[in-house]
Design brief:
Blueprint: H1 2-12, E1 22-24, E2 41-43, E3 52-54, E4 60-64, E5 75-79, H2 90-101, E6 106-111, H3 122-128, H4 133-156, H5 158-161, E7 168-173, H6 175-185, E8 195-199, E9 219-224, H7 232-244, E10 249-254, H8 273-283
Helix pairs in contact: 4-6
Amino acid sequence: MRIAAALLLSLLGFDAFAQNKVIRLYDGPAPGSENWKQTEQENRTNLWQTPVVFNVVNPTLTVFQPEVGKANGTAVVICPGGAFFALSIDSEGNDVARWLTAKGVTCFVLKYRLVECKTTDPTIEVMTRGPLDDVVAPVVKLALADGNAAIGYLRKHAAEFGVSPERIGIIGFSAGGTVAMSAALNYTAETRPNFVAAIYAAYNWAIKGSGVPADAPPAFVLAASDDPLGLAPQSVTIYQDWIAAGKSAELHLYSKGGHGFGMKLQHQPSDQWIERFADWLEVRGLMKR
């Protein structure tokens, strides 16, 4: 019977004990959205041709840990994008985490709060909603709180995950880049990220507060010049803001890649973006144990 059970698990392709741990960031209802009634859902057939999660009410971190003995002590909070209507949970979340954990980085995919969707396809809602700035603005504040809470939680529980409290960073894509950059501009000692990465970030939506802090974390910034949403210049602005403040920054702009490429294989130079991110981490000593 034991052999049969083991064979069944093998055929299913996973081990029941190997499931990713999911951490709720708040003990009760998330502050600021206590009256939200929507239910978190997933859509796998949509205009973006990638799985998305929407109607997030209870922010969580999904844990991806390296194999035993391979962790290097660096942790990254990963913020998928999706215009604050959805989260591109695989291409800009789970797949990023799997790549980085293979390199020894402990990863935490953040599901942050989103605009309520009225249908089961948030991608169509984004395309038909019209201007999004006013719709998104109130939720950005909540998503920033979730980003801060994620970093604060990891710093408090660093030993539990085998990471250094001084090696906790945040990376975000598109709207997730808004979250990451907002967290890099607004923090306390407990919630300060040690590094930030903005991948085709929507910087115009970021909460900028009083500008780049005196102790702002080093920034890695990347986008494609042919981004149809016109976000490449915003990556340049992030870089210029950091350099003007005397802070460390690195900027990569690919001629082709479009928007939302994440971990998708497009046979473009942008396919290697994550290797450049790993190079940057290496230079900063964040890939060493």
